[in-house]
Amino acid sequence: MQGFLTMKHPGGAITQLHKKDQGRNGAVPFLAACFLLFFCLPASGNPDHVTVESGSPDNATRYSITSGVCSITWIAYNTELNAGVVKHSSQCSEPLSQQLPLLTQICKEFFRKDTNTPAFRTLFWGGLIPENSPASLEMPLRLALAAYRSPGWDAKKGKPKKGNINRFVKDLANSELIYPELKELFERFHRSILLASVEKVRVLEAKKLPFYDQLKRQGIQPADKLPFDCMAWFSVSEVKQDQSK
Fold this sequence. Notes:
The protein is α+β, with helices and mostly antiparallel strands and 245 residues long. The protein is 29% helix and 27% strand.
């Protein structure tokens, strides 16, 4: 991943401060120059460039961006079978709300350049807990909390009171909207998003989860068994704009 994730940060202007008299009058211009230098330097965390790589061995186009400690890549597949499928990959511990500028930049490039944009129908998120660390754990935390509060979840047995666990987690994640940032992202591009399929749901005792302290504050007991991770596929569809407006 590191081989194709790049980010250009604008270079700060080099300001030369000349030596002043050491008296009281010389201190004022010196402090003023420092003040201007501080506020004129560019913000280091702002994304400004998406790297696009095509023709990879897996016949896909990669849209990648890096800012500070965050790296995000979307892999848009070009094969006939997978045209319209995009895989998300990230390495970022920042809250999802703070990842939105990066995701927005990638979306702009993808919708502007990718030949499969009209066919885009599936965003494969991977696991709610990403393969790479550090990672944001907001969606896993939201899922665990939602299950604990659901009357349909048996926290002692660690499974739904009835029905299939994959179906239960999918319906719960949608009804409780554990992905509001993704909804906001796609609304900016006149698209809707819905969790369409999950598999490989993982369940653990609350005390073994990396965010147990947050669960404990909600009254969750150490032995309560909760779902926190799964492989997630989102369906994406275009929202028809009202032509009468």
